[in-house]
């Protein structure tokens, strides 16, 4: 085994990086893969609560990097999925406690025992972001169909390309099909057209995401929710499967369906 | 075509189109680091050089930066009116 490292980043805060990390990690693990999720947002720990593991933290990323514990002591076993782990961020330390080369070294140590390492990047383009992308084999840029998020995503794509980390893939989060139908929200086609990178998946706006986050259970484990289905599809695409985009337009009129992007395949 | 259908059958406002048009310009500015003012200067300088060699109508020319995937292109379309009359 030699794990592939995926980093989830966005530039803008609040677009859904942490939720995406938890759910992509959960969906990959649920299909039998060994997965570790790493929270690289030092000082603003969050992935632990989204995964529902906040009460199990003993050691964190900074402890592991600084040698206060063995790496496997900082790996928290998930409650729901046996082969899913979390390396939580430190809450009290400043973001300079970890360097990009620390992250590369940490991932090298983790790779032999895992199939996937999913890193949750902090917002912004500073140290924490540089840490998060340093060990990445594949970077996923997440955005919302909204002007400021798309603009920041474009900046991030430019930086990732300039750092020679390859072209990132795009995840569009919180798309509201009804608003797209009314022509009051950028469609997935619009966003792909503007950013001009490969679309990995679209996660529709879904109130179940908030409910599942409240409970600390990943939505990807919810068989019925559209967002959960979207994350499971994304995890399959990450593993190299060809999975068509979901039809998010159920209930739309004939013409709207015709002009929708979701049937166009990808 | 898809947009045409949507526009024909939709009486609603289309803030999405506004968003896309605005983003298109913002992204070109961000990617090239050329402001609107710098772009105007570029056009003026270009015209000055061209006018040494060819005659053209400044009102009929078009100079724009367009997006081609993640690459920006400076496209200049300048109908030539004729050679410059040289006096020897």
Strand order of the main beta sheet of chain B, please? 1-4
Report the average pLDDT across residues of chain A.
93
With helices defined by DSSP (H or I, 4 residues minimum), what is the helix count of chain A?
A: 11
* Mean of pLDDT of chain B: 83
Note the beta-strand portion of chain B: 15-25%
Annotated CATH architecture of chain A? 3-Layer(aba) Sandwich
Count of helical stretches of chain B: 3
**Which overall shape of chain A is indicated by the principal axes computed on the Cα atoms?**
globular
Radius of gyration of chain A: 18 Å
CATH superfamily of chain A: P-loop containing nucleotide triphosphate hydrolases
Structural class of chain A: alpha/beta
Cα Rg of chain B: 19 Å
Biggest sheet statistics of chain A? 8 strands, mixed
How would you sum up this structure, described in words?
The complex is a heterodimer of chains A (266) and B (88). The longest helix of chain A is centred in the middle third of the chain and has 16 residues, at 147-162. With 266 residues, chain A is an alpha/beta fold. Chain A contains eleven helices and eight strands. In chain A, strands 3-4-2-5-1-6-7-8 form an eight-stranded mixed sheet, with helices on both faces. In chain A, helix 1 (17-30) crosses helix 10 (226-238) and helix 4 packs parallel to helix 5 (127-133). Chain A has a single domain (4-258), classed as P-loop containing nucleotide triphosphate hydrolases (Rossmann fold). In chain A, 54% of the residues are buried. Chain B has 88 residues and is of the alpha+beta class. Chain B has one domain (16-83). Chain B has three helices and four strands, in the order αααββββ. In chain B, the strands form two sheets. Chain B has a two-stranded antiparallel sheet. Chain B has a two-stranded antiparallel sheet with strand order 2-3. In chain B, a hairpin with a 2-residue loop joins strand 2 (62-68) and strand 3 (71-77). Chain B is elongated. The N and C termini of chain B lie far apart (56 Å).
């Amino acid at each position: 085994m030699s794990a592939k490292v995926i980093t989830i980043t966005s530039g803008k805060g609040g677009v859904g990086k942490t939720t995406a990390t938890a759910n992509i990690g959960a969906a990959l693990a649920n299909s039998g893969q060994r997965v570790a999720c790493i929270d690289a947002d030092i000082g603003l720990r969050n992935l632990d609560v989204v995964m529902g593991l906040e009460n199990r933290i003993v050691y964190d990323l900074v402890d592991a990097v600084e040698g206060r514990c063995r790496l496997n002591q900082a790996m928290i076993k998930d409650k729901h999925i046996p082969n899913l782990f979390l390396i939580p961020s430190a809450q009290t330390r400043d973001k300079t406690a970890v360097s990009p080369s620390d992250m590369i070294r940490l991932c090298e140590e983790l790779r032999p025992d895992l199939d996937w390492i999913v890193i949750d990047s902090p917002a912004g383009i500073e140290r924490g972001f540089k840490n998060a992308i340093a060990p990445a084999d594949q970077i996923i840029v997440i955005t919302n169909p909204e002007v400021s998020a798309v603009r920041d995503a474009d900046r991030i794509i430019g930086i990732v390309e300039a750092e020679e980390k390859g072209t990132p893939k795009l995840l569009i989060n919180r798309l509201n099909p009804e608003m797209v139908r009314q022509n009051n929200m950028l469609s997935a086609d619009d966003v792909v057209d503007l950013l001009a990178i490969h679309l990995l998946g679209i996660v529709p706006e879904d109130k179940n995401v908030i409910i599942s986050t409240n409970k600390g259970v990943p939505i990807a484990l919810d068989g019925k929710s559209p967002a959960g289905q979207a994350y499971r599809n994304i995890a399959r695409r990450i593993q190299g499967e060809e999975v068509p985009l979901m039809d998010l337009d159920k209930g739309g009129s004939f013409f709207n369906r015709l002009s929708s992007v979701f049937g166009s395949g990808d | 075509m898809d947009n045409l259908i949507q526009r024909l059958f939709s009486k609603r406002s289309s803030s999405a189109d506004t968003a896309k048009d605005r983003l298109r310009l913002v992204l070109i500015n961000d990617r090239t680091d050329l402001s609107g003012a710098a772009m105007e200067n570029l056009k003026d300088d270009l015209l000055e050089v061209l006018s040494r060699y060819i005659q053209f109508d400044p009102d009929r020319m078009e100079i724009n930066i367009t997006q081609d995937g993640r690459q920006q292109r400076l496209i200049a379309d300048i109908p030539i009116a004729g050679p410059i009359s040289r006096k020897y």
